[in-house]
Design goal:
alpha+beta, 15 helices, about 55% helix, about 15% strand, elongated
């Protein structure tokens, strides 16, 4: 072991009487410990909430969505089908048509709703809508000359609709054709076959109908609004997106599950890293004590430093002694804080010790936690870096001491 290591440890872990320097060092270690533990716990909670929201959205959002960049609809060509068939990560392709329509029921107040036409068989393979059915089922077939429709629970209560009721939908294109051609509006009638209860995060509730009925409603013939894609692993979405965008060209826009809800995900990430920098202030206050304690060590050990210089220690060797003291303080604080933060996060994840206020109205009962080792690395690395930087000024001051000045001052 180098002499600088031994001297640094001797200065830091001296067993002499407790002095102000020892007290300041202990406060620095305690501050780094508390700040590191808090950062790990808080970031793990933010990760937990992110995963809860993401799982809610991905239960019905696709991993990838292809839409036209030039128009509101497009035709699925043979070359596009070949491109999609050549990507092994893709498990489900589900075309859809989406638009707004005016809904009316037995003379009650009209309401504008979002209508989505899907292929029931393909849609059921990537969206877990059956598990959300409040009443009825995923039945969109034509029965007694009337296609089926699925409503969300809020819409059914707003319009006082039940299973078996029929409603009328009128699209914007239908109203425009009625005004320009001076004919009666073309109204499409549907029978309520199912009511689902989905917790919406930011989007409005959606009515689901068969894609063929949607093509007639929105007058799209063989066109679709987009193509929803489910992958084996949604974490591969960005890689597959780049492949598809390159193959399909600029005429199409490919979006990942993150892009579809980008404002929400961006805000959650901003909150997470905002909390990281704010809580880093706790560590910053702690490392300021390192500056004070090590500066006092430099003053106290001025004679020792002069003697070390006189027997051949170079400036960088003297600096190394005090930089290592800052490193040791940060290392001890990070180990203790990291262990505390990881333990608290694990206990919360396992036993749900801290409950959510008003949890009866939410889908989880306690604060969710997910430990991400990249975040732990950021916390530990940031804390260690601040501790080493805090010891830089005392190290420079110690390295500037001349042997003759040290002896004269003594």
């Amino acid at each position: 072991m180098k002499a600088s290591h031994l001297i640094a440890r001797r200065y830091l872990f001296s067993r002499k009487n407790v002095s102000l320097i020892n007290t300041l060092t202990m406060i620095s270690v305690a501050g780094v410990t508390v700040g590191t533990a808090l950062l790990i716990v808080v970031l793990s909670v933010f990760n937990g909430f992110f995963e809860v929201i993401k799982s809610m959205l991905l239960s019905n959002d696709p991993d990838l969505r292809i839409e036209s960049a030039e128009a509101r609809s497009f035709v699925i060509t043979e070359s596009m089908e070949q491109t999609l068939a050549g990507i092994p990560e893709i498990t489900v392709q589900s075309p859809f048509i989406q638009g707004k329509a005016l809904v009316a029921h037995r003379g009650r107040r009209d309401q504008v709703v979002i209508v989505k036409g899907v292929d029931p068989e393909r849609f059921a393979r990537y969206a877990d809508l059956d598990a959300l059915m409040f009443a009825g089922g995923l039945d969109l077939d034509v029965r007694n000359r009337m296609p089926g429709i699925l409503l969300s629970d809020p819409v059914s209560r707003s319009l006082r609709l039940n299973i078996g009721d029929d409603i009328a939908l009128l699209s914007a294109s239908g109203m425009r054709r009625a005004l320009t051609q001076f004919t009666g509006p073309r109204v499409s009638r549907f029978e309520v076959r199912g009511i689902y209860d989905m917790r919406q995060v930011i989007d409005e509730p959606v009515m689901f109908i068969d894609i063929a009925a949607a093509q007639r409603l929105f007058d799209l013939r063989n066109e679709v609004s987009g193509l929803d894609i489910r992958l084996h692993d949604h974490n591969r979405a960005n890689a597959v997106k780049h492949i598809l965008q390159r193959e399909l060209g600029a005429r199409y826009r490919v979006q990942t599950w993150y892009d579809l809800q980008k404002p929400l995900y961006d805000v959650m990430n901003l909150e997470k890293w905002g909390a990281y920098f704010i809580l880093m202030i706790i560590v910053l206050v702690a490392v300021l004590n390192i500056v004070g304690s090590l500066t006092m060590v430099v003053i106290q050990k001025q004679r020792d430093i002069g003697l070390l210089r006189s027997i051949g220690f170079r400036r960088k060797d003297i600096m190394s002694i005090f930089l290592r003291q800052g490193w040791y303080i940060g290392l001890i604080g990070c180990i203790m804080g990291g262990a505390t933060g990881l333990t608290l996060s694990w206990l919360q994840d396992r036993y749900e010790m801290v409950k959510l206020a008003g949890a009866e109205s939410f889908i989880i009962s306690a604060y969710p936690v997910q430990i991400q080792w990249m975040d732990v690395s950021f916390v530990l690395g940031g804390s260690l870096l601040l501790c080493v930087l805090a010891s830089w000024y005392p190290a420079l001051r110690a390295a500037s001491i001349q042997p003759a000045d040290a002896v004269r001052n003594e």
